[in-house]
């Protein structure tokens, strides 16, 4: 998944196997330490790995840090089946109800419309101002990012049963 150029099209580069393994290791450590993080996703029917979704604390250099980010990445064969939104709904329910989060954000490159569509499906609210990602050259086509947020109140307003 992490070395597929299509999956990684909105990141500065695809990952080597070593970088991908290091990321997986960091995910394991975060979950062991805090009880939450970026969780591996498996198909309920077969148990096969399809990607990840969950929460992350992004860099302190972002203009809206400190914050908790929700993120998603699926291997290409599993796109367009509703899995990212389903997994994010489950993560948000856990984040707001069990972990007591008051707000989560999501951000992505301005032209990552597939990820933006997940944010909209989750009823996240777009900010009216884009930002330049501080780790990307401002001239790079991926530098401009959109920011969305979701408060616990907004989540509960549409999930009164959750
Ligand atoms: C961003 C990403 C996770 C979105 O995946 P996705 O499959 O488009 O999103 P969802 O899982 O919500 O699926 C929605 C699609 O499934 C369709 N779908 C099919 N069956 C469905 C079902 N039973 N229930 C819900 N949706 C269903 C929807 O109609 C929608 O299709 P559309 O794309 O034609 O509108 C994926 O493109 C990805 O991994 N991209 C690379 C990594 C990345 O950029 N991550 C974000 C960085 S911030």
UniProtKB/TrEMBL annotation:
GO molecular function ontology, one term from the record: acyltransferase activity, transferring groups other than amino-acyl groups
PROSITE patterns xref list: GNAT
Pfam families in alphabetical order: Acetyltransf_3
Gene3D superfamilies on file: 3.40.630.30
InterPro entries: Acyl_CoA_acyltransferase (IPR016181), GNAT_dom (IPR000182), N-acetyltransferase (IPR051531)
Domain of life from the UniProt record: Bacteria
Chain ranges of the N-acetyltransferase domain: 1-153
PANTHER family named among the record's database cross-references: GNAT FAMILY, PUTATIVE (AFU_ORTHOLOGUE AFUA_3G00765)-RELATED-RELATED, N-ACETYLTRANSFERASE DOMAIN-CONTAINING PROTEIN
Name under which the protein is recorded: GNAT family N-acetyltransferase
UniProt source species: Gilvimarinus xylanilyticus
